[in-house]
Amino acid sequence: MQTFVAVSVYLLLNGVLVCSDLRRGLLPDRFTCPLLWSGLLLCSLMTPALLADKLWGAALGYAGFALIYWAYRLLRRREGLGYGDVKFLAALGAWHGWQPLCALVFIAAALACVFTALRALCHGNLGAIKNPLPFGPFLSGAGLIVGWYAYSEQAFIVQL
């Protein structure tokens, strides 16, 4: 039952964030913060031994994307990454821990590249690449892939 509640909270908040990012290009704090805190709270209740990993995941996810955000902003004098993406990665780090953060970012970037290439091919020009691209849906997709992989790996080990 606890796992059902955790997965439901995770999927619901991820879905709301994806819809918000697609519609308005925003990942509001009123959804990223509950995603982060629910991940930490549920971890402390269900698997307290992993809480340190989740705290490090949140901190490193935030710090990594904040560094990219500020470096790009200082160099280019404009945003290249929204600050909601910074908080969203911190929330995903709170749910998944620090270990899969690099894979999560790589998968999200790969999904965004494939989507952008397909969009450019479908439109027949490269103008589609210049438009701002909401990154939240790709972070969410990467989070689902990482979560599914971790769950299937855990289920395989339990079967042994």
Written overview of the protein:
By secondary structure, the chain is mainly α. The protein has one domain (1-158). Helices cover 82% and strands 0% of the residues. The chain contains 7 helices and no strands. Helix 1 (2-24) packs antiparallel against helix 2 (29-46). The longest helix is centred in the middle third of the chain and has 26 residues, at 51-76. It is globular. GO terms for molecular function: aspartic-type endopeptidase activity. One of its GO terms (biological process) is signal peptide processing. This is Type 4 prepilin-like proteins leader peptide-processing enzyme. Keywords: Membrane, Transmembrane, Transmembrane helix.
Helix and strand element order:
HHHHHHH
Q: Please, how many domains?
A: 1
| Uncertain ranges | none
**Mean of all residue-level pLDDT scores:** 92
Question: How would the global form be characterised?
Answer: globular
Number of helices: 7
